[in-house]
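Lab manual, section 2.4: Encoding a predicted structure.

Procedure: take the sequence of the chain (421 residues), apply the prediction step described in section 2.3, and record the output as structure tokens. A sample record is shown.
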Amino acid sequence: MGINSFVNRPSRPDTAAPRISRQEAPAGLDIPLVLVIIALGVFGLLMLFSASADFSLLVYGEPGYMFNKQLAWIVIGTLVAVALARIDYHLWQRLAIPMMAVSMLLLIGVLINNEVRLGAVRTFFGGSVQPSELAKLATIIYLSVWLYAKREHLHDAQLGLIPLAVILGAVGGLIYIQPDLSATITIFLLGGMLFFLAGGDLRQMVLFMIVALAAGWLVVQFSTTGRVRLVSYLAGLKDPLSSDYQVRRSLEAIIRGGWFGVGLGRASTKLTGLPVPPTDSIFAVVVEEMGLMGALMLICLYGLLLWRGLKIAARAPDMLGALLAGGATFWIVIDATINMSVMVGLLPFAGNALPFISAGGSSLISSLAAIGILLSVSRQAGQRPALASDERRKSSASVDLRRRDRRRGQSRSRRPAISDR
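Recorded output:
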């Protein structure tokens, strides 16, 4: 079972004119995914309108400043998503290297520019542009193209795992020294998942995890930020009152929200010291105002996005499409999981955004661009290029392990042995 099972070959290849099944017909635009993104976008705007008014007035002198900017960003991001959805995703094979080079230059430029914001050097133009978000998307595209090109050699560590580690180390290192620990962790998680999806050797994956854990331990030991956050996290596991200040205020908001919340716009913690409620802490505002039921609804929307993304990956015409779709989906879900887990004290503090909900143009446009790539893959789901049999075979492990297509495998037609003539 492999990518050949994704593209649903006719069960009788010797038939002159096989009848095209429903699954084989061109899928077109994935309407359920579009509806999920619309729901997330509308929900995000409502929550941002509630969470940002006081913060915008205090910082920018205008209550609607952040909401109006987010509205503009969502329009731009939607146009980007529509444009990318109409582009053949194979074009990224030519654009991956230039895009990666631009993102690396931007990461270096941030350090040279040295614009300190909230204790970190991550942005240009007063916080409007955050290159680490573009770097995440660029890494997904570059690694997908690179793994697709190297699919014959993934079992060779010198041609597979080692170059992958160098690529991730270069990007992650530039992001880490900003410092942005959450983005660095996301980059490495995405790299490992894409390597696994591409059919990387299981022993190499174990080695990758060991090295990643060792590197993480070293980061914690030599990074003041990492060490402080880990100590605060461990203390919070023993006693929530010893957690980081932001986590304590978030837990306060969650307790106040109860099952059904205090009502939209009626949260009090956003007015009494909850750090950056429109961005990192917006999930706490969601739970306080909408309750645990509102949080569950939001989690279900991300779950639906994961389902549709993996479905698109399963139906991709080739391995490149599967990797792009899988990488884009996992990125959004990983960021959402980290943000929500941090706010309830399940993970050490990380400053990543909640996709489609938190304020921020870089995060929103990058996430919508990823959705555009997903839709591009879905539009070509019924178009089956002539994939080589060895590509199908080498990618079979990744497909089978993920159970992304739960249909029964199609049995091959059996023919009686024919003697030599």
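Check your result against the sample. Residues 15 and 413 are 11 Å apart (CA to CA).
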